[in-house]
From TrEMBL:
InterPro entries: ADH-like_C, ADH_N_2, ER, GroES-like_sf, MDR_fam, NAD(P)-bd_dom_sf. It comes from Streptomyces rishiriensis. Residues 23-339 form the Enoyl reductase (ER) domain. Keywords: Oxidoreductase. This is NADPH-dependent curcumin reductase CurA.
Amino acid sequence: MAAAPPATTREILLAAQPGGLPGPEHFAITRKPVPAPGPGQVIVRNRYFLVFPGLRTLIGGRADGVPLPRIHVGDTLFGPAIGEVVAAGPGGPLRPGDTVTHLLGWREHALVAAADCALPGEALPDPVAHLSSGSAAYGALTRLARVRPGDTVFVTGAAGAVGTLAGPVARLLGAGRVVGSTRSPEKAERLRAELGYDAVVVPGSRSIDGQLASAAPDGIDVLLDNVGGDQLTAAVRAARRGARFALVGALSGQLAPRRDGGSAPAEIDTFRLVNQGVSLHGYRGADHPEVTEEWNRRFGDWLRSGELTFPQVRIAGMDEAPRALQELFGGRHFGTVVVELPPT
């Protein structure tokens, strides 16, 4: 039976508006009362929550067009989480003991509308896998880029939460050659050794164009872009006729210290787009609501068969969460980053 909720709980809030990338000094951990759930509400004791780069945009003040509210000074941070219902108000479908996913992470206990919770089910062998960003990679590769047997696929930002799944998934979908990018030589080796990337471009070490020409001498058929900027520029120059580009993220602008997290300019040769018949689309999960269930089913099957792994870093405890976010912005970690809270 689930333990009753405590009288108070801890939350992480934005304490000061950063002038650039947020650091631990811009956050505070505060203690707040745990309210009683009303009709259709539940109290969830969070076990894990996701550390994700999109917080930079929400904190930076440029959330125009983003389907999530801006985070102001004094607001508690939020994001995908998984936990256990410990109290339920009348009239709702959930009961204490139920495991649910929701969007009110960055706190130990969350008051959530039952309608805003989802029962994860048994599709995935590890509950934390429900916090993966793999559905974005899978959706972009199957709905926009439509990977074909033998395609050469280029994944930018390949060592992040999306990229560590995108490359292996592209291979499972039939790609003949998979190329990634990361700014860390150590991560480049891990991408090759652990995740089966055929080649890895390391921006900043030498010309991206030259490295991409060596990694994909016949050009690229598919781009799954998490970065934008110079890497998108180079990918356009390397595009084969009929290439399909799916843009999932824009880390080049989002994590730039001198930008506000809400724009990511890139110079693109539109003549080449036209001449090569390149399609370029941005991927939004909300436009493809059927993808999550399909992805969870296939993700679970691939995990159980050993065809796919889920690279992740678990950071222990609320006190370490602000540092984990700073490290994510600094590119320290490999794969998905989650904060793990103690069971009691």
